[in-house]
Amino acid sequence: MLHVVACIKQVPDTKVAKLNPKTNTIDRASAPAILNPYDTHAVEEAVRLKKRYGGTVTVLTMGPPPAVKAIRRCVEIGADEGYMISDRAFAGADTLATSYALTKALHKISQIRPIDLIICGKMTIDGDTGQVGPGIARRLDIPPLTSVNKVVEIDKEGGSAVVHRKLEDGYEVVKSTLPCLLTVEKEINEVPYSPMPNLIKAARYQPTIWAVSDLEDVDRTQLGLKGSPTIVGSVWAPPKPQGGEILQGPVNSQVDQLMDILLQKKELFAVKGGAS
Amino acid sequence: MNIAEYSGVWVFIEVKDGKIVPVSLELLGAGKRLAEKRGVELSGILVGYGVKPLANTAFEYGADAVYVYDDPIFKLYRTETYMRAIIECTNRHKPEIILYGATSTGKDLASAAATDLATGLTADTTILDIDADTGLLQASRPAFGGNIMATILCKKHRPQMATVRPKIMKAMNPIPGRKGEIIEEKISIREEDVRTKVLEIVKSATKQVRIDEADIIVAGGKGLGDAKGFGLIHDFAETIGATVGASRDAVEAGWIEHHHQVGQTGVTVTPKIYFAIGISGAIQHLVGMQNSGLIIAINKDPDAPIFNSCHYGIVGDAFEIVPMLIEQFKRVLTAEEVKNA
């Protein structure tokens, strides 16, 4: 029986977020909160491993109270249990402070049920760093395996995992001891529509919520803004480039103008049939 | 932490298939500019097996010194072993800044090392600058899904670390025969103590399209409407011998595979000609293609930001304009073939 923990995050949907041009801040109202897309695949992979080997899927998040919604989404996918750490002291955390807080929560979860495997999404779409997963692995002193696009085998008795790590020009097959931490690519699986019983369970699901005071051995100076070595010095919209020439006239003429420009670089274009 | 003890700019020199990867040479160029402004040395840190001769390449590209970890344990990249070299070397020599390429290896390594070094790490940096007096690194990157830029600072911890996107920084022109100091480092790691083993490396059988190597890219976005509409991009690319690129929206809609994606979470490209068709031009896309030689934008929306970042633009319907371009090219290129025959 495997115990797999997926670490997840609720994020603003940055694809539809609008920028306030005056303040250069994101207009939060324009961006609905969603489960980080990469994390849906992390949870789905955990659920698939549970189906394959038996066991329990736990999800863990750090966030403000509304992030409960993201845990419910994980329950729809098939997670069994959800934990959330939520406290003002966590606010303003960069990746180092985030991995610290999550690690404290993972320690507590592992006292309830020992953890065999941790899965994170490759990155979040708001932070775009991919640094929290490896950070957790280092803090727990377990091997981090990033960019995983296939789990070949988890052998709990043998204490090992075999996965594929995506490389720029292929993949590598890596064997690791358990427990270990995977960060997964989107291509690792497809997330199907959730079965009705999951949807019903999720609708009413209440995760366990811990404040800092519920966690053990916490050094408060390592939390939130205080525990973050990086700060955002400034946020700015890049200066608009000069802009190009917009071609004018009837469509035919515009296409002709463009052809004249392109054919100055004629040598670049392959002659059909590949004779160039 | 006494940050005054830390000095010098380092670049992690990534090696693949026996060669230094291009982004490491770019970072030696970027690191050189920072080091000169600050008045310090530029060093490389080179980890691998049989890699020592590559230090000479690093010198030619600007490094004043190279720390070398050359040991069979480093034959294949593993987080656990490489990270130990970085951490040990950093603790011994105390650099003020370490730059890594934002490749899968560079990001993996930097994330792990930053945790043990308990220092700040900025991901996917696209602009680097330094305060000459304080040594404070200003690492700027697209933030929040690429809608805005953020400058990240790490004031109280050292080394300041950043991963930097490939193809953004400029490498120096190499100076043949330029010399530097090789500092050989030793580390004792026993294979039986390493918890991860690489069993096999599998290269893609069908040579995967490398859009970062293309001379011409025809890229399509949301404006094409659906997968069928995106077929127009394939048709045009095939006609002119170009490689197909795509915006994040097109990839997430499932019209094309991720390795065609241009932009912050995709690939950075610098082709000689880049066609952006039905692509609005969000910052996260622009950072991936703005250094292209000639950028042509075709979009229905006259206010699309892509028109600020192109050399020539046509405001109009791609489904009307692109077929006309295809026709013209077919005529021109076929004529050329006949002439050559």
List keywords for this structure.
heterodimer; A: 276 residues; alpha/beta; Rossmann fold; 2 domains; nine-stranded mixed beta sheet; two-stranded antiparallel sheet; 15 strands; 27% helix; globular; B: 341 residues; seven-stranded parallel beta sheet; 8 helices; 18 strands
Task: Write the topology of this structure.
The complex is a heterodimer of chains A (276) and B (341).
Chain A: E1 2-8, E2 10-12, E3 18-20, E4 25-27, E5 33-35, H1 37-53, E6 55-62, H2 68-77, E7 81-85, H3 95-112, E8 117-121, H4 132-140, E9 144-155, E10 160-167, E11 170-177, E12 180-184, H5 196-204, E13 208-210, E14 231-236, E15 245-246, H6 251-262
Helix pairs in contact in A: 2-5, 3-4
Chain B: E1 9-13, E2 15-16, E3 19-20, H1 22-38, E4 42-48, H2 55-60, E5 65-70, H3 79-93, E6 97-101, H4 104-117, E7 121-125, E8 127-130, E9 137-143, E10 148-153, E11 160-164, E12 181-184, E13 196-203, E14 216-220, H5 227-240, E15 243-246, H6 248-252, E16 273-277, H7 283-289, E17 294-299, E18 312-315, H8 318-340
Parallel strand pairs in B: 1-4, 1-6, 4-5, 5-12, 6-11, 7-11, 14-15, 14-16, 16-17, 17-18
Antiparallel strand pairs in B: 2-3, 8-9, 9-10
